[in-house]
């Protein structure tokens, strides 16, 4: 592990990945955008910025740039480094600007955020319905849906246009029933997992079959208990809900808005 402080070109524009402790050590050989070495910039205070030279001659935004940004942050997290991650695209004119414009006026605030993240990891839980199983539950529990579904299955193909609105109605009823189950099941999963976490940030499900998408802030000394709780949930609901745990991740969801 090294703590590089002096880059090859001090006046080069700098890309900023995030902020960490001034005494943090970077993993050996850590590189970022365009494989440029990642180094630390400090203003002499409690915090340091993880940076690399900004690519020149082109605009940022290529997929490789996004991957490199995330790789740097993931590597720091996996190494146990407490980091305040920056969103993709942060850059300053040079290392002096990083010191004076980013760190000098924000050191106390950054240190406070890092204190809140110290000894904690972000873990993301995603739960998705096994659609055939849940659809079977809905049909068994909802007589109106079961009756309409059966009636539509018996309609000849050449008469499909005559039941167009019935098919729309069936879709609406299934969606409503799915939403009710999602609300109930999602809350059950959230309550059980949250008991072993310090905080959580719930996201809006992106798809109809998504039950829960939530990030948890977990103390490292409680991580085993948290993962055990999630494993128990997966065992209890595995026939109808697929549960995945992702992480540790850069703690974007637990960094206060500027």
Outline the fold blueprint:
Blueprint: E1 14-21, E2 39-42, E3 47-53, H1 63-78, E4 83-85, E5 91-92, H2 95-103, H3 107-117, E6 120-129, H4 131-141, H5 143-153, H6 164-194, E7 199-202, E8 210-219, H7 223-237, E9 241-249
Antiparallel strand pairs: 1-3, 1-4, 1-5, 2-3, 6-8, 6-9, 7-8
Subcellular location: Gas vesicle
Family: Belongs to the gas vesicle GvpF/GvpL family.
Protein name: Gas vesicle synthesis protein GvpL/GvpF
Q: Could you explain how this protein is built, in words?
A:
Its main location: other. Pfam families: GvpL_GvpF. One of its GO terms (biological process) is gas vesicle organization. InterPro entries: GvpL/GvpF. Belongs to the gas vesicle GvpF/GvpL family. By secondary structure, this protein is of the alpha+beta class. The protein has 2 domains: about 15-120, no CATH class; about 120-250. Helix content is about 40%, strand content about 20%. It is built from 7 helices and 9 strands. It has helices spanning about 65-80, 95-105, 105-115, 130-140, 145-155, 165-195, 225-235, and strands at about 15-20, 40, 45-55, 85, 90, 120-130, 200, 210-220, 240-250. The longest helix is centred in the C-terminal third of the chain and has 31 residues, at about 165-195. It is elongated and about 75 Å long. The protein starts with 13 loop residues before the first strand and ends in a 9-residue tail after the last strand. Residues about 1-10 have low confidence and may be disordered.
How would you summarize this macromolecular structure in one to three sentences?
By secondary structure, this protein is α+β, with helices and mostly antiparallel strands. It has helices at residues 63-78, 95-103, 107-117, 131-141, 143-153, 164-194, 223-237, and strands at 14-21, 39-42, 47-53, 83-85, 91-92, 120-129, 199-202, 210-219, 241-249.
